[in-house]
Amino acid sequence: MDRSQPFSHTRPYPGQSGVTVQPPVFVTTAPLARPVPDHLGYSIFTFLCCCFPLGIAAIVFSCFTRDAIYSGQQELAKKHSKTALMLNHIGLGIGLVIIVLIIINHMMK
């Protein structure tokens, strides 16, 4: 071992390779320029007035849609928006059927 040179932290020991550290890369995303509808109002209406369980699921998917919009994920936002709309339509249909059945039941008495 050659001790004539002063100890340096910049040179690796013999037989060892140096370590290169990459600088961190920060990726920022912007909200979508043309966002898809999140149907949150419709989901809240379905939750309160029509079908409680489907309303909760629709609210969850509406929130997922908003998150995807704010993170700039167009395809995911479309998928969640479509699911929320479908759940709202089904919940509204179930709610209307139940209301009609209640009205018919009261008229038959």
From TrEMBL:
Predominantly, its location class is membrane
What's the gene?
Answer: LOC113059661
**Which keywords does UniProt give here?**
Membrane, Transmembrane, Transmembrane helix
Protein name (database record): Synapse differentiation-inducing gene protein 1-like
InterPro entries linked to this entry: CD225/Dispanin (IPR051423), CD225/Dispanin_fam (IPR007593)
Q: Where in the cell is it found?
A: Membrane
Region span, Disordered: 1-20
Query: Where do the TM regions start and end?
Result: 40-64, 85-104
State the organism's lineage.
Eukaryota, Metazoa, Chordata, Craniata, Vertebrata
Q: Which GO terms describe its cellular component?
A: membrane
Q: Which family does it belong to?
A: Belongs to the CD225/Dispanin family.
